[in-house]
Amino acid sequence: MTTEKKSLISNKIFKNNFQLLHWISIVLIILPAVVMGILILTYSVNMPYWDQWNLMPQLFIKISQNSLSWQDLIAQHNESRKLFPRLIFLGLAYLTNWDVRYEMLVIFLLACLVSVNIYRLNRLTVNANLSGKAEGRRQKAEGNSDFCSLSSAFYLRSLTTLLIAFLANILIFSPIQYDNWFWGIQLVVFMPIACITTAISVIYSRFNTRYKFVICMVLCIISTFSYSNGMIAWVIVLPVLTLVTAKSRSDLLKQKWLFLSWIAIFIGNIIIYFYDYQKPEV
Q: Rounded distance, CA 222 to CA 212, Å?
């Protein structure tokens, strides 16, 4: 058997083995989400629990009396002002006769959104760094017709990306946080995470800088008025936005009005949030 034929056979075996490993990795990545989805469908119960009883029934009464107001929607509940969760809960209640299992479904969908965002950011950041380090190896292999030598760096990056995605999904869809999966009001826990990861994903997109600022500000507002710790979105997103959009001091000066607008809207959100704020009783 000639050396050329041996090389072709070796290349084919390498490619087939990688494709098999690639598909196995994809199955492993989606497995945590599939398992959690099955658990939710199997064990979810249509029974409002605890805080759900003092959050929603008052709104239903107000709607029936045509007296629902802005103050009712943004009213403080525990430490949070759950404006956007209330809107979601009301919409779902209208469509499903307040079947709280659909709230659990939205929680699952938000977790899937977080997973997709983490995967995309992994490809745009970690994978990009690996690409730079492997460039030298690729250039050395370009003169070699051997498929294994030419493509090993690419496959290594792909498998690394899939491994990180698998580990992330194990954490995101962990059954240990069963309270969050089977209690509809815990939607508020996932909303800030979904908003922050989506905002950072938008920052790395091809949108122009103004669109990025506007979208990120909207997501930070949603995060703030979903859960008390959602305010941290303003602090997390702005540094990433600055690093990606302002490559130099001149860029920073050109975009100063965008940054000033960000600070002004952030302060406005804090003022609205803490207006007439009452410390909850323990």
A: 15
**Cα pseudo-dihedral 41, 73, 190, 222, rounded to 10:** 140
What are the extents of the domains in the chain?
A: 1-44+100-182, 48-99+184-276
Cβ neighbours for 119, distance < 8 A, ≥ 6 positions apart? 161, 165, 168
User: Which string of DSSP letters, residue by residue, matches 83-151?
Assistant: HHHHHHHHHHHHHHTS-THHHHHHHHHHHHHHHHHHHHHHHHTHHHHHHHHHHHHHHHHTT---HHHHH
Sign of the dihedral through C-alpha 177, 183, 187, 188: negative
- Contacts for 62 with CB less than 8 Å, ≥ 6 apart: 68, 69, 72
Total-model pTM = 0.84
pLDDT in tens, 63-95: 999 998 999 999 998 899 999 999 999 999 999
Q: Cα–Cα–Cα angle for 181, 68, 219, nearest 5°?
A: 50
